[in-house]
Design brief:
With 302 residues, this protein is an alpha/beta fold. It has eleven helices and twelve strands. The protein binds adenosine-5'-diphosphate and magnesium ion. Magnesium ion (MG) binds next to α2.
Length: 302
């Protein structure tokens, strides 16, 4: 009797986001496909790969047809005029758009080759691997320690949580300022300290990726400089995607830069965000491929 034919694993097979493999899938890893964007991908490992990605709020398409490859352990910055969909796109990277009832994501976003929006992918697990820091610092009304220990506690992470707290606060360059008042309320910290606390809170669950949506927009220049230094320090260990309205900041901190703009359809009077180009930061700021990018960075638009 012959063996039954071998079948490919079902698409709905549960996926282990931590190891990036389908559970029980013994198949060897597949070679990577050709880069979607050769310039931006280079030879680096790719963390995210987007194709034909559009996001709708109800019938309104906020951003359309985005294709890009986000490289590992680099800082990628998103710039572009207000309303062009930077936040909307950033929220796709850890499925935060799931939490917005009217939002619908179309197209594909792969995380280490796994379809992030596959039914079998657990969004909570996704947000553990891919942390987020918001525009306005949002510490919980708890002690400094409990803010950082929150994720490890909820996830019941093994190990000494006090050690995790110290390590995370050190990485976020906040330890020396708060080590003697860990039991004090986080709400008593300055805005810049609160934002570094939120970064420490994101780091505490040991993510691979950190998404930052204009993390310095509520901070003064000194606190902004601290956050930028901190990003520089941690970038060898994390993949960072940052939205910034500050072009100097994008030029200072990022390795890759994506410029987005808004296209206006005169007939239907609708505005849709589009990715114009994504490339090495020095190229974007010295010799962009698209005139719209040049106009924006030279201040002729936006
Ligand atoms: N929760 C939402 N519901 C409906 N429309 C939204 C929502 N969030 C953003 N938008 C709209 O989507 C477009 C892109 O917004 P956003 O992603 O915030 O842009 P950016 O971050 O580049 O300023 C804007 O027109 C905005 O009004
Ligand atoms: Mg925004």
């Amino acid at each position: 009797m012959s063996d039954p034919p071998r079948t490919e694993p079902e698409r709905t097979q549960p996926v282990d986001i931590r190891t990036h493999t389908a559970v029980n899938d013994a198949a060897p890893p597949q070679p990577a496909a050709a880069p979607l964007h050769a310039e931006a991908a280079l030879d680096e490992a790719r963390v995210f790969e987007l194709s034909g990605l559009s996001v709708y709020y109800g019938a309104y398409r906020a951003i359309r047809d985005v294709a890009m490859v986000v490289p590992e352990r680099r800082i990628s910055a998103f710039i572009g005029p207000s309303g062009c969909g930077k936040t909307t796109l950033l929220r796709c990277f850890n499925r935060m758009n799931d939490l917005i009832l009217s939002a619908r994501v179309e197209g594909r976003i792969d995380y280490h080759g796994i379809d992030l929006y596959d039914d079998s992918v657990d969004p909570i697990e996704v947000r553990t691997r891919i942390g987020m820091v918001f525009q306005k610092p949002n510490p919980f009304p708890k002690s400094i320690r409990d803010n950082v220990a929150f994720g490890p506690k909820v996830l019941k992470l093994k190990g000494d949580h006090d050690e995790i707290v110290e390590r995370s606060l050190r990485r976020a360059a906040l330890w020396d300022e708060v080590k003697d008042r860990l039991k004090d309320s986080a709400l008593g910290l300055s805005g810049g300290q609160q934002q570094r606390l939120c970064i420490a809170r994101a780091l505490a669950v040991d993510p691979e990726v950190i998404l930052m949506d204009e993390p310095c927009s509520a901070l003064d220049p000194i606190a902004t400089g601290r956050i930028e230094d901190l990003m520089e320090e941690i970038k060898s260990q994390y993949t960072i995607v940052i939205v910034t309205h500050n072009m100097q900041q994008a030029a200072r901190v990022s390795d890759r830069c994506a410029f987005f703009t808004t296209e206006v359809n005169e007939q239907s009077d609708t505005r849709t965000g589009v990715l114009v180009e994504f490339d090495r930061t020095e190229k974007i700021f010295s010799n962009p491929s698209d005139q719209r990018t040049e106009h924006y960075i030279t201040g002729r638009f936006g």
